[in-house]
Design brief:
290 residues, 8 helices, 11 strands, nine-stranded mixed sheet
Length: 290
C-alpha cells in the first residue's frame, strides 16, 4: 500500500497529509444560566463545617439584597435541606424546567436531597451520572437572574468539583474551609493548590471550629488548636477571612433547620459575632472583584 505524498505547498487543511495534526477536542459547553458570580465552597476533608459555611454565606448574601442561589452538589451526602428546614419539600418540574425551592424572596435552593423519596435513600452513582446531574442542576433549573450561586461541594477534589468548574459560567473562585489541626490544614492546602491549578482565585480561608465556647462561662477553649487556617493562608498568599469557634448553639441551629446567622431575639453570642465578621470579610472580597 502506498501513501500519497503531501504537496510542497501543504497546509494543515490538506486532505492527504500524513502529518496533519489531530483535531483539538472540544471543551464542554457552559450551561445556560444567568448568574454573575459562582462561588465554590470546598475543603480537603469532611467534617469541617463546609455546609454550615455555605448556608450562612448564602443567607448573608441574600440579606445584603443579592439574588442568591444555593446548589448542594454533595450528591452522596446532601445536608443543605436539613440545615434550612426544607428536607420535607421536593423539587417540582414545570414543563422542561425544574423549579428550585424558595427559602426567601431572594434565596433559592437545589439539592439532591429534595429529589429523593426517602431522606435515608442512598445515591449510588458513578462519575458520568454525577456529571449529567450537575448539568441538569445548572441548565435545567429555573434559577432566574442570579447575582450569586453558592455551590456546596463534597470533600476533596474529585468529579463534582471538576464538573462544576467545567459546566458553570462565571466561576469567581473558591472559599476553603478548614479546622485548626494540622491534618485538616494539610488537606485544605491541597484544595488551595487544586483551585490554583484550575486557574481560579482562592477567595479566602475560613478556620472553623477554632476553639469551643463554653456554654457555662463563655470562655473559648482551643480543643483542636488554633491558627492553622491563618498560617495556610499566609503560606499561599490568599485572604484569611477569620475564625469561627465551635458552639453548641451552631449545632442546634443546623438540627433545627435555621442558618446560624439568623438571630434569636434577646440572645448574644461571640460565635454570632465571629460568623458576622467572617461573612462580612468574604462579601468584601467578593465585591472587590466586581
Amino acid at each position: 500500500m502506498t501513501t500519497e505524498k503531501c504537496p510542497e505547498n501543504c497546509t494543515e487543511n490538506c486532505e492527504t497529509c500524513s502529518q496533519k495534526p489531530e483535531s483539538t477536542p472540544k471543551m464542554p459547553e457552559k450551561s445556560d444560566i444567568n448568574v454573575r458570580h459562582v462561588i465554590l465552597v470546598l475543603s480537603g476533608k469532611g467534617g469541617v463545617g463546609k455546609s454550615t459555611v455555605s448556608v450562612n454565606l448564602a443567607y448573608a448574601l441574600s440579606n445584603h439584597g443579592y439574588q442568591t442561589g444555593l446548589l448542594d452538589l454533595d450528591i452522596h451526602g446532601p445536608s443543605i435541606g436539613k440545615m434550612l428546614g426544607i428536607e420535607d419539600l421536593r423539587l417540582q418540574a414545570i414543563g422542561e424546567h425544574i423549579m428550585p425551592v424558595k427559602v426567601t424572596g431572594s434565596l433559592k435552593v437545589v439539592s439532591m436531597a429534595l429529589l429523593l423519596n426517602e431522606t435515608d435513600s442512598p445515591v449510588v452513582w458513578r462519575g458520568p451520572m454525577k456529571a449529567a446531574a450537575t448539568k441538569q442542576f445548572l441548565g435545567d433549573v429555573e434559577w432566574g437572574d442570579l447575582d450569586y450561586l453558592i455551590v456546596d461541594l463534597p470533600p476533596g477534589t474529585g468529579d463534582e468539583a471538576l464538573n462544576i468548574i467545567q459546566f458553570a459560567p462565571n466561576v469567581e473562585g473558591a472559599v476553603i474551609v478548614t479546622t485548626p489541626q494540622d491534618v485538616a490544614v494539610l488537606d485544605a492546602t491541597k484544595a488551595i493548590k487544586f483551585i490554583e491549578m484550575m486557574d481560579l482565585s482562592v477567595l479566602g480561608v475560613i478556620e472553623n471550629m477554632s476553639g469551643m465556647v463554653c456554654p457555662h462561662c463563655g470562655e473559648v477553649v482551643d480543643i483542636f488548636g488554633k491558627g492553622g487556617g491563618e498560617k495556610a493562608a499566609e503560606q499561599y498568599k490568599v485572604p484569611y477571612l477569620g475564625a469561627i469557634p465551635l458552639d453548641i448553639e451552631m449545632r442546634k441551629a443546623a438540627d433545627e433547620g435555621r442558618p446560624f446567622i439568623v438571630r434569636t431575639p434577646g440572645k448574644t453570642s461571640p460565635t454570632w459575632d465571629a460568623v458576622d465578621k467572617v461573612m462580612e470579610n468574604l462579601i468584601a472580597v467578593i465585591e472587590s472583584k466586581e
